[in-house]
Amino acid sequence: MAMFDWRGRNNRGEAVQGQLEAMTEGGVADQLVAIGVSPVHIALAKAAASADTESWLAKLNRKPVVDEDLMIFSRQMYTLNKAGVPILRAFAGLQASATKPAMVDLLKDIRASLDQGRELSAALMRHQVLFGAFYISMIRVGEMTGRLTEVFMRLNEHMEFERDVRERIKQAMRYPIFVMIAMGIAIVILNIFVIPVFAKVFAGFNAQLPLITRGLLAFSSWMLAWWPLLLALMFGGSMMIKAYLRTPEGRYRWDARKLKLPIIGEIILKATLARFARSFALSSQSGVPLVQALTVVAQTVDNAYIGSRIEQMRDGIERGESISRCAAATGVFTPVVLQMINVGEETGELDNLLFEIAGMYERETDYNIKGLSAAIEPILLAVIAALVLLLALGVFLPLWNMGQAAMGKGGG
Question: Quick check: 38 pLDDT over 80?
Answer without folding.
Answer: yes
